[in-house]
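Our consortium's second objective concerns turning raw sequence data into structural hypotheses that experimental partners can test. To show how far this objective has progressed, the report includes one record in full. It was chosen at random from the queue rather than selected for favorable results. The single chain below, 69 residues long, was entered without modification.
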Amino acid sequence: MEHYKKGIPVVHSVARKTKEIRQTHLLMVKERASKATNTILMPIIFFQFMPMIGFIVFPLVMEAITGFN
């Protein structure tokens, strides 16, 4: 059986294009992951750190109020 030798070899260009598509997709996934990290960070700050700060500050405020009387 004889190999077909006419035409343009497209193996290299298809492989190069496939690599470009994979890199673009990976970059998009990394971008979405970094945005998700920022999105998750806001509720953590609000629901965890704010009550903790209130827990620390509330006794100080109460002491200051009762101290002035």
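The partners drew two points from this record. Residues 11-68 form the longest helix (58 residues). The two ends are 105 Å apart (CA to CA). Both points have been shared with the crystallography group to help prioritize constructs.
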